[in-house]
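Hey L., structure's done. Input below.
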Amino acid sequence: MSPVTGLSSSPAACDTPRNGGLGPRTAAALVFGSSAAVLVVEIAALRLLAPYLGLTLETSTMVIGIALTAIAVGSWLGGRIADQVDPRRLIGPSLGVSGAVVALTPAVLRTTAEWAPTLLLLIAALAILVPGALLSAVTPIVTKLRLTSLTETGTVVGRLSGVGTAGAIVGTVLTGFVLIARWPVSGILIGLGALLVVGSVLAEWRTRGWGITPALALVVVAGGLGTTVAPGGCDTETRYHCARLVADPDRDSGRTLVLDGVRHSYVDIDDPTFLEFEYVRAIASVVDAGFPKDEPLAAHHVGGGGLTFPRYLAATRPGTRSLVSEIDSGVVRIDRDQLGLSSQDGIDVRVEDGRLGLRRLDTASRDLVVGDAFGGVSVPWHLTTVEAMADVRRVLKEDGLYVANLIDHGDLAFARAEVATLGATFEHVALVGEPADIGLDPTATSKGGNLVVLASDRPVDVRATQEALDARRTGWKIATGADLTSWIGDARLLTDDYAPVDQLLEPYSPRNRR
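Output:
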């Protein structure tokens, strides 16, 4: 035996596991499963936090950073403790406690977000860090049990490292492509918690060294029950959003589509010409001023939501053909099943990314392109760049019109950059919004919110647009020319190579977006 490590240096020892060791298949299964579970928790945590923090670059970076910290801490502590304590006594607790925490996560996070939002980041960090560290500790513990000879150290460590990486890959792919699409996030985490507790039971049955597994099973049950009564639940969990439909108490046929806590669309099922949101009335004003009355249009919509504006076009311009790129099939299902969308409306919805949808369109095939795509409280950056706008310009006819909804607050850095980007792509650009927000009322303080930008290679009819805005009593004004140039200032163009949209956007409360 080696005097330092206590491991045999004889090759013959490779074929004789020490008493209580793990077989290679059991060891691989433990490492594979625990590594996969860490990534399932990480991705599910992103979905749970999106309604409250937004699915932004910062949120994703934070969750990834916490998960990596958990992996590092768990791997280090797991190896250290395995050298001091019989490792056979550690596997069951690591799996069982992590399972209990995972099962409680949906109820705890949602309750915290609603009742103690200032603690949300701390609780979220712990909900990822604790199970992530415990599960990451499994690999060094199992490695300790598998090492029976110095001559096989590289083989054992390399094999288990590879198995762990494979488990992480499977966990990522399985969650992103299968689990999220088929089950609610709360169900995924409660199910994972149950599996981990079952794994703990099996590990304890093998070692007979730990006795609180039944208590952890009760915790998993409590997590499931807690999720059913926790605030902040969804009517539907789609692939991308936590979705709810809220009935309008003042209008029997009115419905508000809420995605990740944000009011995204208002739909009057019986009267598609009723436009509740001010920015939608502004878009309608711009389009009505830009095209002859009742003229049918060939329109493309980047982002669908409740399909409020495609329905409006179908009602006010019979014969209009609207093609919609909506990335979330769950939202489209809500449109059809609960918001009365039918195939007779002249609205064709494709479940696809907006940028890819633009690429599939023929050149000079659209009179109108409408941009209104948002990921919860964040903006899909790849739809804001010079290259994306060049594709918009390509699919528009010579006298076509692009209209987009912009949302920003504070100094409106993102909105200024996006308008500058459009100015570099189209011959004519105008901006519609509250006078204080677009620089037309320097005595008032800008509050931010929704702005509507329009761009075309034909001149914008400023007078007709303003009259249409006034007719709808929006209180909004239109800025062009020198006023708009002054408002843009030195804003930098957004490109595929440089588009820090999440950093430019001013933080705001998602409940006040519309």
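The longest strand covers residues 396-408. Residues 324 and 349 are 5 Å apart (CA to CA).

-- N.
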